[in-house]
Amino acid sequence: MKKTFRLEGLGCASCAAKMERDISKLDGVRSATVNFLTTKLVIEADESEMDRIVEKSRKIVKKLEPYCEIK
Amino acid sequence: MNLNRMLTPLIISTALFITALIANISNEYVLIALFLTAGLIAGHRVIFKALLSIKNGQIFNENFLMSIAAIGAFLIGEYAEGVAVMLFYRIGEVFETYAVNKSRRSISSLMELRPDHANVMFDGEMRTTDPEDVEVGQLIAVKPGERVPLDARVVEGNSMIDTSALTGESIPKEIEPGDTLLSGSINLNGILIAEVTSRFEESTVSKILEMVENSLSRKAQSERFITRFARFYTPVVVALAALISVVPPLLVSGQEFSDWIYRALVFLVISCPCALVISVPLGFFGGIGGASRQGILVKGGNSLEDLALTEIVVFDKTGTLTKGVFSVSDIKTVEMSRETLLEIAAHAESFSDHPVSQSLLTAYGEETDKERISEAEELPGHGVRSVVDGKTVLVGNAKLMDRFGITRQDMYPVNVARTGVVIHVAIDGNYSGAVLIADSLKEDAAETIRTLKKSGVKRTVMLTGDVHEAGTAVAEKLGLDEVYSDLLPVDKVEIFESLLSMASKSGKVAFVGDGINDAPVLARADIGIAMGGLGSDAAIEASDIVIMTDEPKKVVDAIRISKRTNRIVRQNIVFSIGIKGLILILAAAGVASMWVGVFADVGVTILAIFNSMRALKLLGNR
Hints:
By secondary structure, chain A is an alpha+beta fold. Chain A is 42% helix and 31% strand.
């Protein structure tokens, strides 16, 4: 299952690259992309794992860009 | 963030900074206080973010590095420079935000294709709903000036529609009942009532948007390079800064710590890789956006990058280089004018809907007069027998002539006859002439092959399932280098494999086809180009690039866009790495000040962004 999120307040391109790398490494994530220009995060993972992964991704994003929010 | 909210503190800070610089303040404490205030107004947010990220265990980010540079400058007594670092960094950020917003906007203007409502007809009444809620088979009304929300077939009304957002074609298209309406096009004048043929998720506009939005997940080689480079760049520069601040003063006598710390701080100022990380993907995205405005959909940065390296272009024949529609290409007669023969043949065939009769009627071009026809009989597999103006007319293949005992004349030599279908005509038992019906070339096919050669493609090849004579005739007319004919779909893959192995190591082989029968080859190609819009889902799935129109010359346009995009991306990479390297050397030598460092860092980012934006611009006509 693929889910798309908006990253509000994404301001730094190299942070976006780091987010993508870190989220991709989470357990259960089949693929993750962060598009700096469309400010979109796309996560592909099993539906049953999605909630846990989104929660972890939220933390990763917060850590890298404190003012950035997953919507 | 809101630009105005960002600007106010910067203006106040700049004013304080200038005052401190030019006003003759003798009291050192007042001066420091003034600089400190200016610095904090500009940079408190940066320092705050830096602290936050330290708490989160992230050290090497730009906020932290800038904070260290500014605070360090203050500690070694370079107050003005410390403020300058923060101030220019922030001003740079404002410009960067502006530039990024601008490019985000031009990307979202592409996304404006998305229709926001549909007028659905319920019992003759019109109701406005979300396009996503409309079902297949429902009737929708499209008013003048509105965007077609879903793919549909017109049932009522005539109008002109503008398909430029989908195909890049600027000439409006005439639409009448029975025609297909593609979502995303704009209705120009009359009201149209149409029956929805696909749900919103499957309609053309959704597919285009999805493709463009997802295109960045398939990263180009140079993009991957730059992300890897960025990962090492910052730690390396920071490590160098640490070494430079300590090693020379310790090893060489007479060297001041403050002097070398200053040089190290300049290193920190330019240690952020942002210019590169933003501008490379932005360049590709710009190229993909620019291409989609011309009706060329590119599915990934990697395809756009590879296209410039195309060495061999392989075309499918029918539907790609030729129209795939049979039409009258020649008429030969015995003792009568060609016009008369065509007129009689068209009348004889006017009751048939066989493709051959359709071609004859199209070539005749006028309405047939039904009064002149008194009898009409279709003889399947042979042709027709009709009575026109009281004369018995036979129109059909050789078998028909033999069946009625007509002596045929060989109007066309065998090699010409085999390029199409020969239709014989006999009037009152006498052989009168023949019509050659063949697939015709697309208008821009020859030009495409010619310009491909000019743009650096080494070989052009055509694959076809047609007979040898037909294939060779087309290849000769178009100036193709090679042609393989009499192929079954399976053979196409095999031949394509051998062509793949003929390209040089870095060279790419592209395949252009309409997706009918050739999806396996599309998938196998380095760059698979599907032509003729979003007709076949299998073709879209298998291809890397989709051309919305039927014009082969868009392949040339796509290669041109690819080359231009690659050039812009390369410029950005060389320029950003070059300038940063130069400043690092100058800083180590003690020549570059922190001012120069900040300017270089921010300036390079902004220039690179604007350079990337050029990729989005429409290419002028050649």
